[in-house]
Design goal:
Blueprint (H helix, E strand, L loop, with lengths): L1 H15 L2 H30 L10 E7 L1 H5 L7 E2 H10 L3 E15 L5 E8 L3 H5 L5 E2 L14 E4 L1 H8 L9 E4 L2 E8 L24 E4 L4 H4 L5 E9 L5 H18 L1 H4 L3 E6 H6 L2 H33 L1 H9 L4 H37 L14 H26 L4 H5 L10 H36 L10 E7 L8 H16 L4 E7 L10 E6 L4 H4 L5 E7 L3 H5 L3 E4 L13 E5 H7 L9 E4 L8 E8 L14 E5 L7 E8 L7 H11 L6 E5 H8 L1 H35 L1 H9 L4 H30 L15 H27 L3 H7 L1
């Protein structure tokens, strides 16, 4: 310990004597370690930290599967209530299961109505998760019986926001969708389930959960196997493996298929760990970013190692004297590594400070699909990681210089003329090798960033099938208890659309059940009149489904290809009509005119049976910009009785200026009806590409830092080499070398290192960029244009970095140089 303390004191004194060197090294390391700390905080929360429940490894989600879902891109589908009942009753490997369904409600009784996001859940949900309300109680088994008193548990956020943290709210009643609910409990702030639980797009559970109510299944729902709309969470018994639970559920699904062939044919079941569902598709992107910051740290290490090798020239005599006085090579290496570790710990401390605000910025800029964003932060595990990375970094960048310096040439080091030597070939090779590695690593990052940039540009240039400019959208959800029949629903939307249409600057007003690119999706099956089962079995008899108001297509800029749009003729008492898109017509009516064909939509979304196709519109990318447009059916809202719609208002000017006026017109029709999620379609479009923008931005930043560090590394090595070879340059000039010869000599050395680094980097990029193929759109992971252009860019940067020291070498005065030596 005494020797270690001596090494620390001596190392600190040596670093204190070279403040410029210490500052540059600490800053370079702080950038690399800070970036690693920030990204690891995301890895820690999303991939490593268990979910905030007791024994979270036992929690699973249960989904149904079907071939038509896979063909549409859905690996997992919601469950049917009757199948859920059978799962719960006929399995013995689960402690319990709970069903969840979305419950968007309007709360009245305050200064203004408020739309809340709720969840209908089986009464055992909280006991299954092993969480308890902070005030009051959870649900009792009798709460989910049909006809039981209506009760609700509210979230901690709603309790603070709406009720001012008043504990007396327990026992009071809330007016939700015109019905009275008794508040029986308040959940703690840590319980937000199922928010951020990674549920598919069928469920809008990405937003905050405001309240929970028992899911009372009616007799009809307990027998319903055709409507798939619930999520199911389960807890496996102690000691049960996932494979066992999956096998039991698969066997049960086969039995149900045999018992109920009409409803359950080809339907399967799958069990997924809840944590895996939360992580979802974000795992690959997060790990790629972690690898990117690892490259940045390696480049920073190479830079600092080069600084140490350069500094070694000034310390050759010191090391030689210590060795001559009896210091062993191991003792010298340990002293030098101590100094390196002190540098890395300083860089780690500064990096951790940078990461503290970097994490906040990271979360603020993150897209909506990043799991558990509220939990991301610097904790003990992240700090321990930072400390270990700092130690490893100190050894990594300090080992090569320490081994090089600790073997001194006594004759060369101790003589006075040794000051002007250019360094041993071994040391020069080490510096060159470090620069080559910097260039190679920087090239991999730059190519990866270039691929993401080109992918992002391709995604933004995708034609979504509508014109997003100048459109305001506003979501309306009518309470079922108040709007009990189709006529009242249609009257409400007809009045709202007519009033908004009269606002100054409004060109067209429509409405749609699920807004494109919003994440909400609806898929239904159908039959085509006159086709036999043999004719339809080869086709996927399902399509996207939308309910729209007559002027929706004009408001969104969706072109009418043939036929007509919906109009006043398509009232509830008129024959059923339908509009399809081009993708639907191409798939199901190839070589035919679909106008006049009759289709039976089977999802119970309309009061009509067979509907006549009256028009064909352009295809729209509803799910995402990167996915092909799927076949879509459009139904008239007058004939559908659809409660939840989104207004689409096309304006001649800035659409956002109409927000207050739209709220006012809706309130004029129904003062208890709130309007939510008011935004422009351009903002919706931006949110659709937010994950790709986030990945591109972060990787671009890391690549830029890597290129700067690599440029500094090239410049530093060439500049140091020129300063050490001034005597050689003087001799060359004295013997007749021209300035151009000196320029070629210096720049040639730099370009040789750069070219070797580029070659190695290209090989690495060819291997590693394939891992990010799933993040790209419209560009190959080995795009030759990106590879060539980025390589040329880095070569030009290396050329510029070497030109400045080359100019200095060209100006060497032979007399001065030889006199100095």
């Amino acid at each position: 310990m005494n020797t270690l303390w001596q090494d620390l004191r001596y190392g600190f004194r040596m670093l204190w004597k070279s403040p410029a060197f210490t500052l540059v090294a600490v800053l370079a390391l702080a950038l690399g370690i800070g970036a690693n700390t920030a990204i690891f905080s995301v890895v820690n929360t999303v991939l490593l930290r268990p979910l905030p429940f007791e024994r979270p490894e036992q929690l699973v989600l249960l989904w149904e599967t079907h071939p038509f879902g896979r063909q549409l891109g859905y690996e997992h589908l919601p469950g049917a209530t009757a199948n859920f009942n059978d799962w719960r009753q006929q399995t013995d490997l689960f402690e319990g299961m709970a069903a969840l369904d979305g419950w968007n409600v309007v709360m009245t009784g305050g200064a203004e109505p408020q739309r809340l996001t709720g969840v209908k859940a089986s009464a055992n949900l909280f006991s299954l998760l092993r969480v308890q309300p902070m005030l009051g109680r959870g649900f009792l088994p009798e709460d989910e019986r049909t006809g039981a008193s209506r009760v609700v548990v509210i979230s901690h956020g709603l309790w603070q926001r709406r009720f001012g943290s008043d504990p007396a709210v327990v026992g009071k009643t809330l007016a939700l969708d015109g019905e009275s609910y008794n508040v029986v409990g308040i959940m703690p702030a840590s319980v937000t389930f199922p928010q951020d639980m990674g549920l598919p797009a069928f469920f809008d559970f990405s937003v905050k959960t405001d309240l929970w109510t028992p899911y009372a299944l009616s007799d009809e729902e307990t027998r319903n196997r055709g409507s798939h709309h619930i999520a199911v969470v389960g807890r496996m018994k102690e000691g049960v493996r996932l494979e066992q639970a999956q096998a039991q559920l698969t066997n049960l699904a086969r039995r149900l298929e045999e018992q109920y062939p009409d409803d359950n044919k080809d339907w399967g079941a799958v069990v997924l760990p809840l944590h895996e569902q939360v992580v979802g598709k974000s795992r690959r992107a997060i790990l790629i970013l972690l690898g990117a910051v690892g490259f940045v740290l390696l480049i920073a290490c190479a830079n600092v190692a080069n600084l140490l090798l350069a500094r070694a020239t000034a310390r050759r005599k010191e090391i030689a004297i210590r060795s001559a006085l009896g210091a062993t090579r191991g003792r010298v290496v340990r002293q030098l590594l101590t100094e390196s570790v002190l540098l890395s710990l300083g860089g780690g401390a500064f990096g951790a400070w940078l990461a503290m605000w970097g994490v906040d910025l990271l979360v603020a800029l993150s897209p909506g699909n990043l799991p558990r964003p509220a939990e991301i932060g610097i904790d003990g595990r992240v700090l321990a990681y930072t400390f270990l990375v700092s130690l490893a970094t100190g050894v990594l960048f300090g080992l090569i210089p320490a081994l090089q310096i600790s073997r001194p040439d006594f004759n060369e080091s101790l003589k006075e003329g040794g000051r002007g030597a250019s360094g041993s070939p071994r040391r020069q090779r080490a510096r060159s090798l470090l620069v080559v590695s910097e260039v190679a690593l920087a090239l991999v990052l730059l190519i990866s960033a270039g691929l993401l940039l080109k992918s992002f540009i391709s995604l933004q240039n995708v034609k979504p099938g509508f014109a997003p400019e100048g459109i305001l959208t506003a979501e309306i959800g009518l309470p079922e208890q108040k709007y009990t029949d189709d006529k009242r629903i249609a009257d409400f939307y007809r009045q709202v659309i007519a009033r908004v249409q009269q606002l100054p600057g409004v060109e067209a007003v429509g409405a749609v059940s699920q807004l494109p690119l919003s994440g909400a999706e609806e898929v239904d099956g159908f039959n085509i009149e006159g086709r036999t089962e043999a004719q339809t079995v080869e086709l996927t008899q399902s399509a996207d489904f939308r309910v729209v108001a007559p002027d929706y297509f004009r408001a969104m800029g969706i072109p009418l290809m043939r036929g007509r749009q919906f109009d006043d003729r398509d009232r509830a008492d008129a024959p059923g009509v339908m509009i399809i898109d081009e993708a639907f017509a191409r798939r199901f009516f190839p070589g035919e005119d679909p106008i006049g064909k009759r289709i039976d939509e089977q999802g119970s979304r309309t009061r009509k049976s067979f509907m006549t196709v009256v028009g064909v519109v352009g295809s729209v990318k509803h799910a995402s910009l990167s996915a092909d447009a799927r076949p879509t059916m459009y139904l008239s809202y007058e004939q559908s009785g659809w409660l939840d719609m989104t207004l689409t208002v096309r304006a001649s000017g800035d659409a956002s200026n109409l927000a207050a006026a739209v709220r006012r017109e809706v309130s004029a029709v129904d003062k208890d009806q709130p309007v939510t999620k008011i935004s422009t379609m351009e903002e919706t479009f931006a949110r659709a590409v937010a994950p790709q923008r986030f990945n591109m931005m972060l990787l671009g930043i890391f690549a830029a830092v890597a290129m700067i560090l690599a440029t500094v590394g090239i410049y530093g090595v060439i500049a140091y080499t020129v300063s050490q070879r001034s005597r050689e340059m003087g001799i060359r000039i004295a013997l007749g070398a021209t300035r151009r010869d000196i320029l070629k000599l210096v720049v040639g050395q730099a370009m040789l290192m750069a070219c070797v680094g580029v070659g190695l980097g290209l090989l690495g990029a060819l291997a590693l960029t394939r891992l990010m193929a799933g993040l790209l759109y419209g560009v190959s992971a080995t795009d030759p244009l990106i590879f060539i252009s980025i390589s040329l860019l880095l070569a030009v940067v290396a050329l510029l970095a070497s030109y400045i020291p080359a100019r200095r070498a060209m100006k060497v005065d032979p007399i001065v140089a030889l006199h100095y030596e």
